[in-house]
Write a structure and sequence with these properties.
The complex is a heterodimer of chains A (228) and B (113).
Chain A lengths: L2 H7 L5 H26 L4 H22 L4 H19 L15 H22 L4 H11 L4 H26 L4 H21 L5 H26 L1
Chain B lengths: L4 H9 L10 H26 L10 H30 L2 H21 L1
The chains are: A mainly alpha (228), B mainly alpha (113).
Chain lengths: 228, 113
C-alpha cells in the first residue's frame, strides 16, 4: 500500500511502472505467506478457487484499462483509497464484529462475486493487494472467521496480483531492473517485521502508519490535482 | 421450482468442505518457484554490484527477468495443480473455476500484447 506512493513520490516512477512494481512485490509477500497457509490447510482452497476467478477477471480488466486512463484520476483514486484505509486503521476501542443478519445464500454469493470483482479491479488498476476488499467479503458476507479469512485472502491476493503484473509486464510497463531490488527488500522486510513485531507499541505503530498513509494521500492528491 | 444458476451454485457450495489437510504439492510449487526467483534476482544484484563479475553484467537483465517471471508463475502453478486435484476429487465446479482463472490470465496476456 505504501510502495506505490513511495515509488511515485521518492523514486519518480511513472504511475503504471509503480503499479507494476508494486504488484510484483505483492505477489512476493503473498507467495511467502501462502506456502505456510496452503501446506497446513489454513486457507479454504475451494472457496478461494471460486472467488479468485472473479478477482483475476477484475485484475486483468483493471490492468488492461489502466493503459487508457490518464495518471491524474489514478492519483486521486489512490489518494481517496489511502484516506479510507487510514480511517479504517485509526486505533479505536474493540467493537462487535458488525455482522448483520445473514442474507439468503444466493444473494450472498452474488455479492461476494461482485465484491471480488471489485477487489481485483482495484488491484489491477492501483497496484494494491486487494485484501482490504477481500476481507469484508470473506468475513462479513460469507461468514468466515478471521483466522480462516486471512489465509484465504492472502492466497487469493497472490494469483490476483500475478495476473495483473503479467498484463503490465507483457505491455512493457514493468521496470524489471528496479523490481528485483524492491522484491528482495519486500521479502526481507516482511520477515524482519514479523520477527520484531512484538518489540514495539502496537498503538504507536498504528498511529505512525496512519500518519504515513495520510501524508501519502495528501501528496498523491496534490500531484493528481496539479496534473489536471 | 426452477433454480437459477446462482441458486444451484449456492446450494452446491455448502457441499464442499474446506480441506483441512493442506496441499503439499501446491505449497511445494510455490516455495520452489519463489526460491528460484530469489536466487536469480540475488544473482543479478550480486553481478551488478561486484566489480570482479563485470564480464557477466550483460546477463543481469535476463536473470532479473527470469526471476520475476518465475515469481509470477508460482501462484499460477499452484492454481493449475489445484484444478487437476479438484477434478480428480470430483469437485468439477472448483476445477472449472481454477482452469477459468488460468484462461482469463492468458487472455489478459494476449490482449495486453
Amino acid at each position: 500500500m505504501i510502495l506505490v506512493p513511495g515509488l511515485l513520490l521518492i523514486s519518480g516512477f511513472e504511475f503504471r511502472n509503480a503499479v507494476a512494481a508494486s504488484l510484483v512485490c505483492v505477489v512476493a509477500t503473498s507467495v511467502a505467506s501462502s506456502v505456510v497457509f496452503v501446506k497446513r490447510g489454513l486457507a479454504d482452497l475451494p472457496l478461494a478457487t471460486e472467488l479468485q476467478f472473479f478477482t483475476v477477471c477484475g485484475a486483468v480488466g483493471g490492468g488492461l484499462i489502466a493503459a487508457h486512463i490518464p495518471s491524474a484520476p489514478l492519483y486521486l483514486a489512490f489518494s481517496a483509497l489511502l484516506v479510507y484505509l487510514s480511517m479504517r486503521m485509526w486505533p479505536r476501542r474493540p467493537q462487535s464484529s458488525g455482522r448483520s443478519d445473514p442474507a439468503p445464500a444466493v444473494e450472498r454469493h452474488a455479492h461476494a462475486a461482485a465484491g471480488s470483482l471489485g477487489a481485483g479491479f482495484a488491484s489491477g488498476l492501483l497496484g494494491i493487494g486487494g485484501g482490504v476488499l477481500n476481507m469484508p467479503v470473506l468475513h462479513l458476507l460469507l461468514g468466515r472467521e478471521f483466522d480462516e479469512a486471512v489465509p484465504t485472502s492472502a492466497y487469493m491476493i497472490g494469483i490476483t496480483a500475478a495476473a495483473g503484473a503479467l498484463v503490465y509486464s507483457v505491455r512493457g510497463d514493468l521496470p524489471v531492473d528496479a523490481v528485483g531490488l524492491a522484491m528482495i527488500g519486500t521479502l526481507v522486510g516482511a520477515r524482519v517485521a514479523a520477527y520484531v513485531r512484538g518489540w514495539f507499541n502496537q498503538r504507536a505503530l498504528k498511529m505512525l502508519f496512519v500518519s504515513l498513509l495520510l501524508y501519502g494521500a495528501y501528496r498523491m492528491g496534490t500531484n493528481g490535482l496539479a496534473q489536471f | 421450482m426452477v433454480l437459477t444458476e446462482w441458486e444451484l451454485m449456492a446450494s452446491r457450495s455448502s457441499e464442499i468442505e474446506p480441506d483441512r489437510n493442506g496441499d503439499r504439492p501446491a505449497a511445494m510449487a510455490l516455495v520452489l518457484l519463489e526460491a528460484l526467483a530469489v536466487i536469480l534476482v540475488t544473482l543479478a544484484v550480486v553481478i551488478d554490484h561486484v566489480g570482479g563479475l563485470a564480464p557477466f553484467s550483460a546477463w543481469t537483465h535476463w536473470f532479473l527477468l527470469a526471476g520475476v517471471v518465475s515469481l509470477l508463475l508460482a501462484p499460477l502453478a499452484a492454481v493449475i495443480h489445484l484444478g487437476f486435484r479438484f477434478a480428480k476429487r470430483g469437485s468439477r465446479r472448483c476445477a472449472w473455476y481454477a482452469f477459468g482463472t488460468v484462461m482469463v490470465t492468458l487472455l489478459g496476456i494476449y490482449f495486453a500484447r
